[in-house]
Specification:
The structure holds two protein chains of two kinds. By secondary structure, chain A is an alpha/beta fold. Chain A is 39% helix and 25% strand. Chain A has twelve helices and 14 strands. In chain A, a hairpin with a 4-residue loop joins strand 12 (257-259) and strand 13 (264-269). In chain A, helix 8 (219-226) packs across helix 11 (300-308). Chain A is globular. Chain B is mainly alpha-helical. Chain B has 13 helices and no strands. Chain B has helices at 2-11, 19-35, 38-59, 70-99, 102-107, 114-141, 150-178, 181-187, 191-196, 209-216, 219-232, 236-240, 244-272. The chains are: A alpha/beta, B mainly alpha. Chains A and B meet through helix 2, strand 6 and helix 3 of A and helix 1, helix 2 and helix 5 of B.
Chain lengths: 319, 273
């Protein structure tokens, strides 16, 4: 079976930096592959390379077996791109935007009209379809942008940080839309800075940094390497931070991290429900006053810390 | 693998959408963007008319421009340099398309890459023609008259559009390099010396010597004089020193030169992405 995307030793240099530095990635057909990494890791460069938007310095990149450099027209025919920015025309209605892109895929007027209608229904945009996009909310625009990438019925959909800057509700709506697409058999390559997003959507996660692949696997495999979930405790009492950390460490979760500035203690938890219950009782028994305790997914930063021994955000700040 | 390739071939008999169809589709979008922003049109028209009236009625009284009425001297200059000022809009629109990812979307579609630039230039040239027509109407209302034939007058208008078309390529190139609307706006300032240090509003002879050197050797002066020559009829030779055909030829050489530089630059920049 031909891989959806096959990237071997990709290199792309810009004047000062190496955006891609030997990146390797294979996306199998059927499902979502997430490319996860901090700002500047090379995620967008990689998506642009797949979308035939830039010339690689070296390496091979194939989409459904077609070489991106040699057969860009064939590759373009097979994919849809939705970017970080909502690339839709504010002075046109949602329907007109979709018909425009459909026409550019070579559909005749009637087919274009039908494709636009199908996508509007698919994404729940029928009601505002004939309003100018300038009146749309950010979330609606982003959904329309996703729609524009769908009118050509692509076999591969490229989503570059599709939910960055969206409010939580719009985020979940967009996730639902992406899931529904995957069910219809579209392959998706998604870039994100959020581990939870990759976890929600992707069957396979590739973590990249400095233009290189540093880890890959299913969400479960990767979380295992990080240590499952994280218990996070907030308190008003700065003097009790140390007690909280000791109490949590005694539960066999390993070392607890104290963040003085935000009065927060975090500790890794292997098994989900039990860990939290035990932590609550232990803290209660220790007699500390807590504001809030929660079990959550590790953040990208924590994954990075576990995989590379350094923080992703420090790196980004230093760059 | 062969079966997949086979299916694809059958499903997409044409890999790339036609040049004309894709160009017209993108042109329509660029034109709609402009036409559906009435503020933009009203503002541009009001501003243009105000400047025109200020030149016509306020500065005009103090400017000597040979033996022709100043309004007949001014109008060709005003309309020919007008293409520069509407060109700034094209640079900004191009840069915004880059900035907002619209160009990326278009480049990822199975269309000929040249259609994106062609559409931009077509749409902006059409808009510029519209603006020029409005200025002509106002000009006639405030006393401008053709001294040559109507045909010459139409030729003059046609020339303005041809100059506009060539400059559009320059502005599109500027927009592609600028990358943001604000930067493009800034780069657009280059039109001020071109428009003002030319024969558009005052005679070159009235300028200090060092400015004359620039004014005589830049495209706008020849373009303005070509348009002016055609509207002045038999008086052209007396007023300008040469028959209008001389300036028309020179201005067309400039036009060709601008296209020869700007088109390859724009295409190269667009391809690089």
């Amino acid at each position: 079976m031909t891989a959806t995307i096959e990237a071997r030793a990709l290199e792309k240099r810009y004047r000062k930096s190496r955006a891609l530095d030997g990146l390797e990635l294979v996306a199998e057909p059927g499902g979502v592959t997430a490319v996860l990494g901090p700002n500047g890791a090379g995620k967008t460069t990689f998506v642009r390379a797949v979308a035939t938007l830039l010339r690689l310095d070296s390496g091979t990149l194939r989409v459904f077996g077609h070489d991106v450099g040699r057969e860009p027209e064939r590759v373009r025919r097979l994919l849809g791109l939705a970017g970080q920015f909502a690339a839709v025309e504010p002075a046109m209605s949602g329907r007109e935007n979709l018909e425009l892109v459909a026409r550019l895929y070579g559909q005749d007027r009637r087919t274009a009209r039908a494709s636009a209608q199908r996508v509007l229904e698919q994404l729940g945009l029928v009601e505002p379809a004939d309003r100018l996009v300038r009146t749309y909310s950010g979330g609606m625009r982003r959904r329309l942008d996703l729609g524009a990438s769908l009118v050509g019925q692509p076999r591969l959909l490229l989503l570059d940080e599709p939910t960055t800057g969206l409010d939580p509700r719009s985020r979940i709506e967009l996730w639902d839309a992406i899931r529904a697409l995957v069910e219809t058999g579209t392959d998706v390559l998604l870039t994100t800075q959020y581990l939870d997003e990759a976890d929600q959507l992707a069957g396979r996660i590739v973590i990249i940094d400095h233009g290189r692949t540093i880890a890959e696997g299913t969400p479960a495999e990767l979380k295992c390497r990080v240590g499952g979930h994280v218990i996070e405790v907030h308190t008003q009492r700065r003097d009790q931070l140390a007690t909280i950390a000791e109490t949590l460490a005694r539960l066999d979760h390993g070392e607890a991290q104290i963040d003085e500035a935000t009065r927060r203690v975090t500790v890794g938890a292997d098994s989900a429900g039990d860990g939290l219950g035990a932590a609550v009782s232990a803290l209660d028994a220790a007699g500390v006053e807590i504001d809030d305790i929660a079990l959550r997914q590790p953040t990208l930063d924590e994954v990075f810390l576990a995989l590379t021994g350094r923080s992703a955000t420090d790196e980004a700040a230093a760059a | 693998m062969t079966t997949i390739a086979h299916d694809l071939d059958r499903r997409n008999e044409r890999i790339t959408t036609g040049l004309v169809a894709s160009t017209l589709t993108i042109t329509r979008r660029a034109a709609l963007r402009y036409l559906r922003t009435p503020q933009l049109i009203v503002m541009a028209t009001v501003q243009m008319s105000l400047f025109f009236l200020i030149y016509r009625y306020m500065f005009g009284g103090a400017i000597q421009a040979g033996s022709v009425p100043y309004v007949d001297y001014l109008v060709p200059g005003f309309i020919a340099t007008g293409v520069l000022f509407s060109g700034i809009g094209a640079a900004v629109a191009t840069a915004e398309d880059v900035e907002q990812g619209f160009v990326d979307r278009l480049r990822s579609l199975p269309i000929p890459r040249s259609s994106v630039l062609a559409a931009r230039v077509l749409a902006d040239t059409a808009i510029l023609a519209l603006a020029a027509a409005v200025t002509v109407a106002i000009a006639f209302a405030v006393g401008f008259r053709l001294h040559g034939s109507l045909l010459d007058g139409l030729a003059a208008f046609g020339l303005v559009i041809v100059f506009g078309f060539a400059f559009e390529w320059l502005f599109v190139t500027m927009g592609l390099f600028a990358g943001t609307g604000q930067a493009a706006q800034g780069m657009g300032m280059i039109v001020f010396p071109l428009a003002f240090v030319s024969s558009a509003y005052v005679t070159v002879a009235s300028m200090p010597g060092w400015l004359q050197v620039f004014a005589k050797h830049q495209p706008l002066t020849d373009m303005v004089d070509a348009v002016r020559g055609l509207t002045l009829g038999t008086r052209a030779r007396v007023e300008l020193g040469h028959p209008s055909s001389y300036y028309v030829a020179r201005s067309l050489v400039w036009t060709a030169a601008i296209l020869a530089v700007a088109v390859p630059l724009a295409v190269a920049r667009y391809r690089r992405g």
